[in-house]
């Protein structure tokens, strides 16, 4: 390791301080379209190709892969734990009063 690398590691206050590089915090060609993609994602559209086709007419010049990578991050993000709604009881549908014959 060079002296410069050792100094950078020693001077870092937090581990996040080590993540400084030439590609950090650069604007993406997708940034202007992320609110639209987020809205459509929340509406239930999770198909990257379909969403890419929707933002190209809006002026997006980037690739489908960039949209796919953005949605992949959303797919793999931890979801909040929620309780599952109760399913209808199978006995409830068969427990109908029988009519006298």
Enumerate the spans where pLDDT stays under 50 for 5 or more consecutive residues. none
Which sheet architecture does the biggest sheet show? Answer: none
SSE order in H/E notation? HHHHH
Mean pLDDT: 81
Q: Which value, in Å, is the CA radius of gyration? A: 25 Å
Count the DSSP helices. Answer: 5
- What proportion strand? under 5%
**Quick one: how many beta strands?**
0
SSE class: mainly alpha
Rough outline: flat
- The level of helicity is 40-55%
Distance N to C terminus: 92 Å
Quickly describe the structure.
The protein has 101 residues and is mostly helical. 44% of the residues lie in helices and 0% in strands. The protein is built from five helices and no strands.
Report what the structure shows.
- The chain is an all-alpha fold and about 100 residues long.
- It is about 45% helix and about 0% strand.
- It is built from five helices and no strands.
- Helix 3 packs across helix 4 (about 65-75).
- The chain is flat.
- The N and C termini lie far apart (about 90 Å).
Describe the protein's topology.
Blueprint: H1 3-11, H2 34-42, H3 48-55, H4 64-76, H5 90-94
Features:
101 residues, mainly alpha, 44% helix, 0% strand, flat
């Amino acid at each position: 390791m060079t002296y410069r690398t050792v100094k950078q590691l020693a001077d870092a206050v937090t581990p996040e301080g080590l993540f400084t590089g030439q590609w950090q915090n650069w604007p993406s060609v997708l940034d202007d379209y992320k609110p639209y993609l987020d809205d459509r994602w929340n509406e239930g559209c999770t198909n990257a190709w379909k969403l890419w086709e929707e933002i190209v007419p809006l002026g997006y010049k980037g690739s489908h892969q960039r949209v796919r990578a953005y949605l992949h991050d959303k797919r793999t993000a931890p979801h909040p734990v929620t309780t599952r709604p109760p399913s209808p009881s199978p006995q409830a549908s068969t427990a109908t009063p029988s009519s006298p014959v």
